[in-house]
Amino acid sequence: MVDSTPHTEFDEITGIRGPSYKFMHGNTKEILTMTKEARSKPMELSHDTLPRLLPHVHSWTKLYGMITLFWIGPGAVLITMESEIVPDVLNHKDGAYQRQKIEGLPKKLFGEGIVGSEGEKWAKLRKIANHTFHADSLKDMIPAMISSAEAMLLRRRDYEGQEIEVYEEFRVLASEETTATLLAWTVLLLAIHDDWQEKARKEVFELFGQDKPGLDGIARLKTMNMIINESLRLYPPITSLSRIARRETRVGKLTFPANIFNFLSQF
């Protein structure tokens, strides 16, 4: 849900353009129409995924600029695609920008975890999460990971020279979101760029030889780290972040009233 701010409050904001406000629904109908049209036909293999995933963001930022204003009902939404401004919003020290509150059914399903928390509660949950995913905690999981990988490789010996569907191996990882999406795109990029696939394989053999991989060695896989980061840059599992200004704030040369919803694109 987008916080409601009467559109007349933005008459004094200069330098920001966007699609005109429509009574009651804002620009919601336009967004639905553009999204339906963008996803109605197959897409060729391309790194330019924004026109398909967020066609309204792609269209309006091209038309009105990298900072664009549109409307979800009576609520104002600010699209921010300028790399200089995004850190200012995410790292605002006095708490002016906060995460969108989780309400309704999502709150009942997921509760009030680290994603929807703020302030002291967020700091406490983050500390717990850091301990859970600390290197010492993850180290105990390495043998199970190696055992699983070895079992998979053993099954593959009967399929030498054949085409197999590898997506089935990780499609349900992390509930088919984020991590699974990252792995899917990384595998695709490696299949397309087999020269980088060979570089990654060579690095693994140079570091481990015939030994089983260890946590310390995995941390030194520079080529694989580059490949994963490039995959994240081209195909981010999370396409956007959002923050709500809880009071009047200044971003660059512009001043915005309270309750404006900031849509921060990952592209």
Describe this structure in words.
With 267 residues, the chain is α+β, with helices and mostly antiparallel strands. The chain has 2 domains: 7-96 and 246-265, no CATH class; 141-234, no CATH class. 44% of the residues lie in helices and 12% in strands. It contains 12 helices and 7 strands. It has helices spanning 28-38, 50-53, 55-64, 86-90, 104-110, 119-132, 135-139, 142-156, 179-192, 194-208, 215-218, 222-234; strands at 67-72, 75-80, 97-98, 240-245, 249-251, 254-256, 261-265. The strands form 2 sheets. Strands 1-2-7-4-3 form a 5-stranded mixed β-sheet. The chain has a two-stranded antiparallel ribbon with strand order 5-6. Strand 5 and strand 6 (254-256) form a beta hairpin. It is globular and about 65 Å long. The model is unreliable at 1-6 (pLDDT under 50).
Features:
2 domains, globular, five-stranded mixed β-sheet, single chain, alpha+beta, disordered N terminus, 267 residues
SSE blueprint and pairings:
Layout: H1 28-38, H2 50-53, H3 55-64, E1 67-72, E2 75-80, H4 86-90, E3 97-98, H5 104-110, H6 119-132, H7 135-139, H8 142-156, H9 179-192, H10 194-208, H11 215-218, H12 222-234, E4 240-245, E5 249-251, E6 254-256, E7 261-265
Helix pairs in contact: 9-10, 9-12, 10-12
InterPro entries: Cyt_P450, Cyt_P450_sf, Cytochrome_P450_Monooxygen
Keywords: Heme, Iron, Membrane, Metal-binding, Monooxygenase, Oxidoreductase, Transmembrane, Transmembrane helix
Organism: Dillenia turbinata
